[in-house]
Structures are given as C-alpha cells and as structure tokens.
Amino acid sequence: MGGVGVRGVLSGRLSVPQVSVLPAMEESITFLHSSDWQLGMMRRFLGPDGQARWGQARLDAVARIGEVAVSTGAAFVVVTGDVFEHNQVERQTILRACEALKRIPVPVVLLPGNHDALEPGSLWTSAQWQAHAPEHVTVLTDTKPLEIVPGVEIVGAPWRSRRPLSDPAAPGYAELKPGKTRILLAHGQLTSLSGGMSDVPTIDQAALEAAVADGRLQYVGLGDRHSTTRVTDRIWFSGTQEVTTPEETDPGNVLAVTLGADEIVVEAIRVGAWHMVDHRVELFDEESIQALEDWFAELPDKERTYVRLAGDGSLPLPLLSRLDAIIDAQGEVFACVERWTKFWTVRPAPDAADLDALQLSGPARAAMEELRQALAAGDESAGVALSLMHRLARDAG
Amino acid sequence: MRLHCLTLRNFRGVKDRSVRLPALGTTVVVGDNEVGKSSLVEAFGLIFKLPDDSKSTQIREIQPVGQDVGPEVTVELTLGGRELTYTKRWLKNRSTELTIVEPDGRRQSWTGREAHNEAERLFHEHVDPVLWQTLMVSQGQSLVLPTPADAEPLITAVTAESGTPVDGASMPLVTAVEHEYLRYWTRGGRATGDFARSEKAVAAAELTAAQAMKAMEEVQQDIRRAERLALDLSDVDSRLTDHLKSVEELRERKKATDEILLRRDAVRHRAETAQARLVNHTRTRVERERLLDEVERFAKTDAELAKRRTDAETVAKTAAETVHAAEAALAEVVELKDARRTDVQEAERRVSELVDRAELDRLLGQQAELVDVRARIAAAGTILDRIKVDDALVSALEDARAKVVEARAALAAGVPEVSVRRLGAEPVELSGTGVDPLPSELGFDESAELLVSGELVIGVPGQVEVTVRAGGEAATLRSRVDEAVRREKDLLKKAGVKDLAAARELLRKADTASAELQEARRTERSLTAGGDLGERIAVLTARLGPEEPAEVPNQQPAVEGVPGQMSLFEEFASPHDTLFEGFELPVGEPDDLAGAQRALEEARAELASVERLLSDAEFAAAQARKAADEDRSEAQNARARSELAGERLAAAVEALDAARAALDDEAVSAAEIEAKAEAEAVLEELTAVQEQVDAAGADQVAGALADALAVATRLQGERDTLRDALRTTEGRLEQSGRDGLATRRDVAELELAAVRSEHESLRRRAEAARRVHETLSRHRAEAQTKYSEPLQSRIEALGRSVYGPSFRVWLDDDLAVAERELDGVRLRVDALSTGAQEQLAIITRLAISHLVSTGEGSVPVIFDDALGWSDKARLRDMGALLGRAGDHGQIIILTCMPDRYEYVPRATFIKLES
C-alpha cells in the first residue's frame, strides 16, 4: 500500500470560500465525494497480468476511501455515477465491489451514471445486486430527496438511459425550494467543459450555479470527468479513484467535503496507487538514449506505472539495438512500457561505419548495403531487416 | 605437393617394395589383387597421421600377421618447394626420420617425435585436407562426386580467376540468418513455430471477440427494445386510463335514457303486431280476388278448347279415309306390275328356245362333217400303213445307187472293155464270167460294150470263139461292183420297189397322205373341241320340247272410285292411260330370234313403266298416312287440353266455394279496412315516442358505450402484449447481466489485443528475417554463380572432349556438380547412369586439379581403381583425358586392370610384381 495518497497532499490547491447564502446549520458536516469507479474496466494495453493488478488496485482504492472516511470523520460517502463499467459486468466484479463497499464504515449513496444507467437490464435492479448489496449502501433510483442524516438531504438525478434527451442533472433539483441543506448528485459533462464535443446533452452550469446561489443546493457533486476538477467552490468533479488513462490530469483522489453553516471546505485526498504517463523523447545519439534511461530510472512506483512513449529521431544501428534492449528491459520492470504507435517515428540511420565495423564482405556486405539503400529510399521494412541483420552479424562475429 | 617415391617394408603383405613416381604426367601403377596397391595410399596417410609410438589398431592391422617386425614407410616428396624424405617405423624398433632440403639447398634433419611434428606441420601447412580428400579417390569411391567448396586452394583459384571474393568469414552470419529465418518460416515459406501459433491465436481470439461483441450488441438491442417497450407501455397505460374514464361517463348517460327506450320498445312491439294483422287481412282479400279471377279465366279457356277439339277430330277422320283410298290404288298397281313381270319372263323363255334351236342345227352339221373327216383319216392311215419307204430309206437307196455307179466306173477303168458287134447274120454267142451285163447273144447290128472282169467267151458258133480274160485286179473291182449291186438290191427289196425312182414316187405319195391325215385330224379336233357333240345335241333336243303359245294377260289398273286424297294419284295416272290403252301383247310367238328379242325388250320396257307407277303410288300412300297421323295426334292433343281445362275450372270453382263458405266476400273487405285503421293509429304513437328518443340521444349513447368498451378491450390487449414483451426482454437482460457479457467482451478484446500485439511483434520480426534471408540468399547465389564459373567452365571443357559440344553442367553452393545437360537433355546427376556418374566424378577431379595446378596448394590426383563402369568408346575418350591431365599435374592411377588405361597417351606404367 506504499505510495497511497495521504490527507492533505493536494490541499494546497484548494480554496475555502465563504458563502453567505447557506441556510443555517447548527454544526458542520463532512462527507466524501467520489465517482467513476468503473469497476470491471479493462485496459488492453496493460495485458492480462497488468490488467489483473490494475483491476484489483481500483478495488483497493475504494477500500482506502473507507479509511479516509474514518480519518476525516465523514458521515457518509456519495459516488456520483459510473460505479461499474457496464451493466453486464461479471458476477465476480459485483461481489468484489460489494466486499469493497463493506470496507466503508459509513452510509454510501450511489448514483447510476451513463455506464451503469438505470435502464432495462440494469445491474442495480438485478437479482445479483439486490442479493449482495450491503445494507448501508443506497442507490438513487429516482429524484426524491433522501435525508441521509438529520437535516441533510441528498437529491440525485440517476441516468435512466445512456441517451438522455435533456440536461441529466436538471430532474434532480427542478422542483426544489430553498430551506434545507441539500447535496445534489449528478453525472455528465458540463456545457462549459465539454467544448461542445459531447454527443449527449450536457449539464447546464449556469442553472446549477443559480440553484446554489438561491440556496436550493449547498453542494453539487458531479461525476463523469476522471480528473479532479473544481467548477465552483460548491460544484466539483471528484475524478476517478484510480487513474484510467495517461490523459487524465489529476485522477486518483477522493474529495472530503465539509459543509458548515456558511462555509465549505473541499479537500482532495489521494487514494489511487497507479500512474499512467505519456513521455515524449527525441532520440538521435547516445546521449539522448542515456537521458531516456535516466528518466526511466527516476520514476517511482514502477510496477504500478504505465508508460506510453512518443519518440522521434534517427539512430545508428547499434544505438537502435540498445534502445530496443532498454525498452524491452523496462517493459519487464514497469507495469507496461509501450511505444505510442501514432507518435513513434524513430528510424534506423545506418552509416558506412556501422557496416564496416562488422567486417563483412562479399555477398553479406552487398546484402546489407542493399537494405541500407532501400531504407534511405523510404522503405521502412528495410530498416527493420537491416537492424536484424546488423544484430545477427554482430552476434555471429 | 608432388610424390616422388614410396617405399613400404613389412607393411601388410608387402615385404619390401619401392615405387618411384614421375613428378608430372600420368602414372599407372599396375598390380594384381592383394599385391599392395592400396597399401601405398594407406601408408602415405598413416605416416603423416600417426607417430611411431602409436598403439592405434590401424598400426596393428598393417603389421604382417605372425611376424614380429615393425612396419616401415618411407616417402619422398616435394612440399612447399622443399624436398622431404620421411621415414617412419612402428611397433618394432620404432623410429622417425625426416630430412628436408630447402629450395636453397640447405638440408635439415629431425628424428623421433620432432620429425613427426615437423612433418605434420609442413603437411598441414601446404596440403589442404579437403582438397587432398577430394582428389584422392579410394577404392570403391570412384562414383562419389566431389564437393570441394571448402577446399581453400580451389576457392583461392576460383576467386583469383573470377575476380569475385568468396567471403568465408560470412558463413557464421549465413548460418545465423538461416537460423533466424527458420524460427519463423518453413523452407517452403509457410509460417511456423511461435509465429504460426500466434496467427492461429489471433484468429481464435478474433472469433471469440466477435462472438462476445455480437452478444453485447444483442444486449444493446434488447436495452433499446425494452426502453421502447416501456415507453409504449406507458403510453398505452395512459390512453387506457383516459379511455376507461369516458366509458364510465357513457354508462351514466345510458342509465338515464334506458326508460324511454323501454317505452319505445313496447309501442314498437304493438305497431309490429298491428302491422302483421293488417298484412294478414290484406293477404286474405288478395287471395279472394285471385280465386274469382281464376274461375272466370278457366271457364273461358275451357270453352275455347272444346271447340278446337271438335274441329280436330273432324279433320282426323277425313285424313283416315284418304289413306284408305290411296292404299287400294297401290294394291292395284302392284298387281299390274306382277302381270308385266310374267310377260317379260315368257319373252325371255322364247328367246332362249330359239337360241337353242339354232345351236342344235349347227351341232347336227358338225356331226355330219365329223363322220366325213373320220373316213378321210382312215383312208390316209391305210395308205401310210402300206408304204414302207421313208426319207432315210430313200436316202440309203440314193447312196447305194451312187456306190454302184462308182464301182462300175472303177471296173470300167480297170478291166478290159470289149465291144462286140454282130455284123453278120451269124449268131454271136457270148458267155463267160465276170462280164456284166452279158447278153447271151447279139442280134444283128447289135453291139455290146462289155467289161470283162473275169473271162468272156465270144463265139460264133463254129467259126470263132474269142476268150477275153481280165487282169489281176479285175476280180477285186468286180467284187466291189457286185457288192454295191447286192446292197442296192437289198434296199430295194426292203422298200418293196424296183428302183430308186419308184421309191421316190412312193415317198411323195406317203407325204401327201400324211398331210391329208394331219388336216383331217385338225378338223376332227376342231369339231370335238366344244365337248361331245352327241351329248350336246341330246341336251338341246331334250330342252326343246313341243311349243305352246303363251297366254298374255291384258288388264287395266282399277284406279277409279278411290275416295278422297285422289288428286295426286290422278295426276300421275292420267298420262298412263294411253300406255294402258296402247299396250298389246304378242298374239303368237315370233319364229325368228330377232323378233323374239324385240318382243323381250318391249316386255321389259312395259315392266319398267309399271314399276315407276308403283313407286308413285307408294309415295302417295305414305304421304296420306303421314298427314292422317298428324291430324290424329292434333285431335288427341286438343282432347287432352280440353279435359285439363275442365278439371282446372272445376277445382277453381271448388276453392272459391270453400273460401266463401268460411267468409263471404264482403266480410273480407271489411276486416281489412278495420286492421288498416288500427295499424295507422299505433304507428302514429311510435313516431311520437321515437321523437322523444331522438331528442334524448338515447340510441347514440348505447352505441358510443359499446364502441368505447371495444376500444378499452383492445387497449388492454395491447397493454398486456407490451407488458409480456417487456418482461421477456427484461428477463433476457437479467440473464445477460448474470452472464457478465460486457466483461466477457472486454476480456475477449483484451485477449485479442494482447495476441495481436504479440503477433504484430512476431510478424515484424518474421518479415525482417525473411527480408534478410531473401536478400542475403540472392546475393550469395549471384556470387556463387560468379565464382563457380571457372570450375564450371573447366569441367565443361574437359567433358566436351568426351561427350561433345552439347555437354554442360551446373554447380550447387558446394561447387558440386548438381545437373548435367547432354544433347539438350538436362538431368540431375543422381539420375545419370553409373558409368556417366563415374566419368563425371573423374572429369570434375581433373578439372579441380587443373584449376589448382598453378598454385602451391596443388596435390596429386590419385585414383585407386576407376573406370570400371565405362564402355570401350568411353575408355578411349577418358584415357585421352587422363593423359592430357598429366600435362598439368601428377596423376596416379592404381589398377589391376591395365587394359582400361591402354588409351592414356604418354602414361608411365609401373608393374608391381607379387
């Protein structure tokens, strides 16, 4: 469990605003906000072994949320959508999820998201879930307010289909009146953050802010965005508990939210253990190879780290062989080291000295020369063949 | 290297033998089996290989059996420009001595192990072991084709000659490339090993992934279907709820309108009853009117039909009478026709009789003529019977006559002819024999010409007697004449005539009688040709009895007095009156045939006329019968119709009477009027009630309620169907969830990505290996082609001197001959005959020797027995080749068959004595 995030790691990035429209609360209350667990998710680039370890890591992160609940004194935990990767995940995933949920010692409220929508055949209505769901776990299947603790209501807008026709958050707070401490759970992209690229209706941020401003809502917990994201002081994406792609900017956190009479404190606490990293390199000489080697050496948590390499440049055949050897070796150490095919343009650049060093003559020399010329003319496969021949000649010599 | 001298002592069966070899040229070492030829080669190998203290079995084997002596070998040779004398003795008194004379004349000697080591060093320094093994052909190895690619001197030579360097240092790379290639590909270019397995793994993973994907697509479809069904169900539920509300409203309205509807139903019932009663009375009235009308109509019809019946019966009676009259007239004409037929028969009889009579007369004439003819036949037969002469006999007589004349002529010519003439009165007597004819005496002035074939005495009595005697042949001639005469006489006697003329006359008479006989017989046959005349005459006579005149009737037809329907008969009868009147039958029979035949013709004409009359009468009678039948039928019909009309009239009257008995005509009309008034009153009441129903809309309420209930039922059915479909789909989805289909799909895709990645990696490496292999192989093949060319051209040059200009060879990578072409036929060497293989092996070695001859690495070519498979012609050519090869190097041939090498020019033969 080394490397697990510790409370306060990211607190420096949080602001603690003063909000004057809060309804009167006698005491503050703390709860945890998480989302996008996506249990049962597969990452094919990890391979079967890496996949198994990563899958377990996602469950472990859930268990760590339980630890954080204890350490923060949280009254309950809300998960804003996509608890499961699919509605048709295997039984083992459901049972293990239930076991992980049992490790959270406070009430848990789950919101169906787009991945596990409350659609026909939904996991939430299945006999399997009904039979094994822990008692302290509540699934929001409608928009009726749930008084999770005295004086605090949770309202939610569960996804009933993967293709909602309108703002997926709106049903959760449409008919509310101010006067109660309410937490809205919703799932979906914000109009302001989607850049207009979403193919499903987005959540109207302005409407949300208005509801917060007029006191209908005191906190809006959002899901779907895997990176921890503050929208406003009271509107947050918690992000996924464990990283899922290298593109995510700040995954692996749970938010500890403390609502006071007129204030709110949101703290991101790391619970994820994995890293997914993109790394771009220019390779053209021995020094650049060495720099890459050093970079690998300095990375922490290698066995829980996926590296995607983007590379450009050209290398003499011996250095190319060395590069291959380095990547092969690091692939054994890291969870996975992968050449990013789309951005991998490292080419062999054999020169006469390479060939001379092999002390080949006659047909062997002529064959190698032919491959070298083909490569120079743009024949990529000739480069691979040339590298191979170079290695064979070197080993044979 | 050049071998100069080999000396063996106590070596196998050789006690002490030394063989000195020319340094250049071809040497044939000849010796019988077991003489030690092969030991020479063996000894050369051993001296450089095993030290003198060797305990090798090879050494023990060369020690003569049972002799405690040490095998010893001395070899003198040139090696690397040095002259070596090298002696080694094993086992007994072991020793090794090496003396070397350097090119500059310096001499060095070694003994013992040093000598061995130095000799061995020098040998390996200057003799390429591959080349040595290639060019030294042991016994029984002559068929083995050399594979000299690793012979360094040869490679040096071909490299020097072709200008293509052979990179021996690249061989490890070639091996490594080959090994790398075979990791991924078979030699045939198919994927193998991990690469092939990964291909299969990808295919299997693709299949699994596709199936998992398909299952998930079905789940998605089910989800969409369930969503759609839920929406539809909600819609139907809502519509059903709305609809049930309207059903309730309609039910309330219907309660309010039900009372007025009940009242309307009661009035409607009464109206229907009144209407039924009215209809009943109206029907009674109409029925009564119909009965009255019927009685009136039937009475009128009955009267009309009775009148028509009377008329028809009158007509039928008249027609029957007409038929009777026509049939009477027909009977009369029939009778007349019978009389005319009798007339015809009588006339025919008379004609026949007259014909018979004429025939009788003719037959009687013929009978008389026949009697006369038969008399003539008898007369002619008598004549012919008497005459014995015939044509043959006359011909024989003619021959006999000619022979007599001929014999006599011969006699006359051959015997004296004496002419005697009586001149005076004195009688002259003649006698003698052989004179023919010989008159007994001559009258006065009578002379006789006599031929004397015998003796003729002519005497005048008393005066003179002259005797004439015929000569020698006279008698013969005479006898011939006599024979001829006798023959003629016999024939004449046979014929019964006196001479030939008489015979000829008789023959003519016989011909005449014969002709007459034939004529008479022809006549007889002609007369009797028609049969026996007598019988025919008798038949005719019997048939012609006494003649009687026929009775000819002369009756007129009785046509008068036939009552009725006579017009037709009269029409055809009138013209015939003249016929009847003018008809006269013959009073007597005509006597002549012509007259009788005329009478017959007339009678026949009469008969024909009467037959036409009969036909007309029959037609008239048939017409009358037909008309009568029709009239009778018409009368019967009229009677039947009349009777039927009477019956119907009676029935109608009866029915009317019965109806009136029940209710008279006035009562019927009154009842109808009353019923009509009542019906109109109730109808008026119904109209008033209906107006009330319409005002309340009672009918529409009931219909609307029924419609609404039907719609509700339909909507409930729809809802149930949707609910069932939704449950079914949700059940499937529940099962899909239990099966974890999405996880399965993800796992399958994960697996597929993994095996694809693995396969892609393998594929890149496999393609690289193939590319390298292909490129290197191609360059090696090109190089091999170049550097094999010098050896190939040497082999072909030598081979052409044996096989001619079409000889070609191809070498493989090891520079071994792989294929040979001769006269355009290319074969692999293992497909060649044994002799050809051996010759090719020898030619190849000579070519190699030739190639390396100029270098320092050259070694002798040694054949321990060869050319055992070649025919004589090839031996000659191969011998010449071996001789020429000696011009460039040292060729040593060991053989027990020196004849094989007799064609080797300039060869040195060394005989090993046993």
TrEMBL record, chain A:
Domain Calcineurin-like phosphoesterase as annotated: residue spans: 30-140
Source organism superkingdom: Bacteria
Record flagged with keyword Membrane: no
Keywords from the UniProt entry: Exonuclease, Hydrolase, Nuclease
InterPro entries xrefs: Calcineurin-like_PHP, DNA_Repair-Maintenance_Comp, Metallo-depent_PP-like, UCP033093_metalloPase
Classification via PANTHER family: COMPONENT OF ATP-DEPENDENT DSDNA EXONUCLEASE (PTHR30337), NUCLEASE SBCCD SUBUNIT D (PTHR30337:SF0)
Protein name in the entry: DNA repair exonuclease SbcCD nuclease subunit
UniProtKB/TrEMBL annotation, chain B:
Keywords: Coiled coil
Lineage, broadest ranks: Bacteria, Bacillati, Actinomycetota, Actinomycetes, Propionibacteriales
Keyword Glycoprotein: no
Protein name: AAA domain-containing protein
Keyword Membrane: no
Residue intervals of the Endonuclease GajA/Old nuclease/RecF-like AAA domain: 1-51
Secretion signal, residue range per the UniProt entry: none
The species this protein was found in: Kribbella antiqua
Coiled coil: 202-236, 593-641, 745-772
Pfam families: AAA_15 (PF13175)
Origin: domain of life: Bacteria
InterPro entries, sorted: AAA_GajA/Old/RecF-like, P-loop_NTPase
